[in-house]
Automatic annotation (TrEMBL):
Compositional bias segments (type: Basic and acidic residues): 1-19
Keyword Transmembrane helix recorded: yes
Stated name of the protein: Metalloprotease
Cellular compartments annotated: Membrane
Region Disordered, annotated ranges: 1-25
Keywords annotated in UniProt: Membrane, Transmembrane, Transmembrane helix
Pfam families: Zn_peptidase
Top-level taxonomy: Bacteria, Pseudomonadati, Pseudomonadota, Alphaproteobacteria, Hyphomicrobiales
Amino acid sequence: MKWEDFRQSENIEDRRGSDYAESGGGGFGGSSGHLGLGAMVVLGIIGYALGIDPRVLIGGAEMASQMASGGAQHQSAAPRGQMGAPKDRIGQFVAAILAENEDVWKDVLPQQANVRFVPAPVVLFNGQTRSGCGRAQSAMGPFYCPEDKKIYLDTSFFREMKQRFGGGGDFAYAYVIAHEMGHHIQDQLGTLSKWQAAQQNSSKVDANAISVRIELQADCLAGVWAANANQKWQVIEPGDVEKAVATAQAIGDDKLQEAAQGRVVPDSFTHGSAAQRVKWLQRGLQSGKISSCNTFN
């Protein structure tokens, strides 16, 4: 994927390093109520086995741990990182992909949905940090927080994609960032708040089904971004789409559950199957239209 010659967004908050990390040993473990990585892995496997979102178990365990250790120190405001495009290569990559997202959506969102695009900052962190939605941890993967309108990314996730999930390559990494930007687009369209409200009044199975539709729409919107970026700048090179599709397949709920527990529980899906994720990513890529991403119909 071509990205080196493009502008880099200044809309980056870099909290990597000891100056911006939370206290407690500079990562997982320590005595301040943080869970160790091993505990998170165990809870993740238990969650998949029981059909429970592992993030719920991890969050509950951390809350109990913090209460036991008098975790008042975690109630302070989120740390403020260094603003602007980073100097390291992975930071420059994120800044360039973010800039491409900004430049596409500032045109596409008003043209196709009559909504003005408001940029979403990306927060880079190591291990863990605080967000408007609670604790951000690398074990959770990248995510978008609608409370503070920011995307949170531990860039070690890219390494994990390659080593653990068999995905990788610049376009596959860009797809991950664009997926989170897709949630920001949903937020600006009003889709995210509407369906998150519906989840509150739904059974667990129905709430999971809504979550799947939200995530698949973000996959489709990532495809819409890629289609329009390629039309503008010819950024996609041979093999890029195949790598992104391979990544979407690898992180499908069915693949992750099968790897963790040896069986698949569709009612517990929160992001969609491998086939679903590939289908909606490709739909966005082929159409370049927001209107093609109605996963709720």
